[in-house]
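Translate sequence into C-alpha cells.
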Amino acid sequence: MPKLNAVLETALYVDDLTRARAFYEGDLGLPVLFENPRMCAFDVGGRSVLLIFLRGGSAQDMPTPGGTIPGHDGKGPIHMGFAIRLEELAAWEERLRERNIPITSKVTWSRGGTSLYFHDPDGHVLELATPGLWAIY
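Result follows.
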C-alpha cells in the first residue's frame, strides 16, 4: 500500500479573515504564504500549512487554471495542535500572557509532554504541545 507521509495542510474557518490574519500572524508569529479575499495560508515551522478560510467563502467548487478545488466549509469550534519545543514552553506562556490570550488549560501528559490550550478569536481550540504527548512525538 502507498504511504501517507505527513499532514500537509490543516484548515480552519473564520468569520473575519482580517481579524484571523492579525491573530495568527501577529500573535502567533506565523508567516503568510498566500492570501486572497476568501483565504489566507500560513507557514507552520517550514513543514506544514495552516489554511484560514472565510466561513462560507469556499463552500462552492473553485475552478483554477490547473483544475477544480472541491468546495468545503466548516462550522463550530475546531481543535488543532502546534508542536513546540519543551525549552520554549515558558516563553509561549509569557507570549500568550503578553498578548492577553488566556490559557484555558494546561495538561501534563503521562508520557511527559505538556499542552497549553487557548482559543483563537473564532473560538477554535488551539494547543501548543511539547514532545512526549504521543508515542511518535
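Note: The chain is about 15% helix and 35% strand.
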